Amino acid sequence: MKKIITDVSKVLAKSFFKWFTTLALGLGLSFITLIIAVILIYFTEQHSSGISASAHTGIMGAIMGLIYLFASDFWATLLATLSLIVFPFLYLNIANKAALHGALYLLWKNNMEGWITEKFTFYTRRLVNKENSVAQKIDNKATVKARLINSIRSDQSTSKWQKKVLTYVLKKDQTRGYRHPC
Fold this sequence. Notes:
The protein has about 180 residues and is an all-alpha fold. The chain has 9 helices and no strands.
């Protein structure tokens, strides 16, 4: 039991480090992109009087200044806007996926697939034992997956990281059904 806890904590630490480095690199690239865009905007609009005056007119002046920037230097302003608004969320999503894939790889590499199987067995037994009528209502694989995902998400004894790994494995399951090898 102690070996499983240490192995899972190592996988968790490595996946957190991967998440942090991916996010830090992404936000660093976003900051560099923002700096480049601001430099491009500054050098193209250096002698214009419309941009600096918009700061003293309130929110409407700021909106008009942004519209003016889009009209005068579209690509640099688009780059600045994307680096402030879109890119941080994109990098967060990429970091989450990279950490989850790294965690699954490390679980598989360290021969810990028994941990995942044990968790799925626990949730499946709990789902079937919950009500006998539930077992009769299960008519296809999608229903089973949806009920298992809901069961995993509502469990208070499983950590957030374990819930993410288990629901990701269930969502990515592409098997067509079990066939006996013989």
